[in-house]
Write a structure and sequence with these properties.
The protein is an alpha+beta fold and 259 residues long. It is 24% helix and 30% strand. It is built from seven helices and ten strands.
Length: 259
């Protein structure tokens, strides 16, 4: 096995995201060389000669997932990581929408503005020159004192599991014109881990910390969201919601941002 592949294999043993990215930056030429050989081997069908181990598991895995995507990003982003003007950071992008009297909802829209408790993203796009490795999605439901979407009303909502009407629906997630998740069942967000709670577990609302989060889905195939690409998550279900219902979507992952 070549020196480049020895280097790449060793990356899989690094648990700390910053240390992992630091080693990638210090050995850029070798990493690029290994990637080129990987692509060449994959194209020729000779995959047995290539051994690259970059795990993408657990909460600390999104940084590794992003590092694995670096070669797919623009040259200015790659250069920023190399010269230290950009860094990796945890991301939790959220948006809330009212669904009373509705059978569908578009979670990200051009008219969205940042408001505490309602959204921390504007115009359904990442900030300029930011890139996101989308690692997981969480979808929650709550009932407000009224159906009005305001910070004051949303502030009192106790977020929890989706009602059966929405659980039996489906959703599609797009980034600009590219479909990333196509007509998936909303059942993937039905993961209230009540059966896993032990007597020694700290828990709130029936959810044991460390055992799983309500409405949380870890993507088996993490997706890159590039700068200024418009997000679009369309959710639809079969029966009208009559309560003062609200849906909250949180996108988890690692983003590249300026220092």
């Amino acid at each position: 096995m070549s020196e480049e592949f020895d280097l790449i294999e060793g990356l899989g043993a690094i648990e700390n995201d910053e240390e992992f990215l630091g080693k990638v930056k210090r050995n850029t030429k070798k990493v690029k060389s290994a990637m080129k050989k990987t692509a060449k081997a994959a194209k020729s069908g000779n995959k047995a000669k290539v051994s690259i181990n970059v795990p993408a598991t657990a909460s600390s895995g999104s940084g590794k997932e992003m590092a694995a995507m670096v070669s797919m990003l623009s040259k200015d982003i790659q250069e920023g990581l190399k010269n230290g003007t950009k860094k990796l950071a945890d991301a939790a992008i959220y948006v809330v929408k009212a669904v009373k009297d509705a059978k569908n909802v578009k979670m990200f829209e051009d008219s969205d503005d940042k408001q505490i408790g309602i959204s921390n993203i504007s115009k359904a796009k990442l900030e300029k020159n930011e890139v996101l490795c989308l690692s997981a999605i969480q979808v929650l439901y709550g009932v407000g004192a009224s159906a009005t979407l305001t910070p004051e009303n949303v502030a009192t909502i106790d977020w929890g599991e989706l009602p059966s009407e929405i659980q039996n629906g489906e959703f599609t997630f797009r980034s600009s014109s590219e479909t990333l998740l196509d007509h998936l069942s909303m059942q993937i967000f039905k993961n209230h881990k009540v059966s896993e709670i032990q007597a020694s577990d700290a828990n709130v609302g029936g959810v044991a910390f460390g055992q799983g989060e309500v409405g949380f889905y870890k993507l088996a195939n993490p997706q890159p969201i590039r700068t200024q690409e418009a997000l679009d998550m369309f959710v639809e279900w079969g029966k009208t919601i009559t309560a003062n219902g609200f849906i909250k979507v949180v996108l988890y992952g690692t983003k590249i941002m300026s220092k």
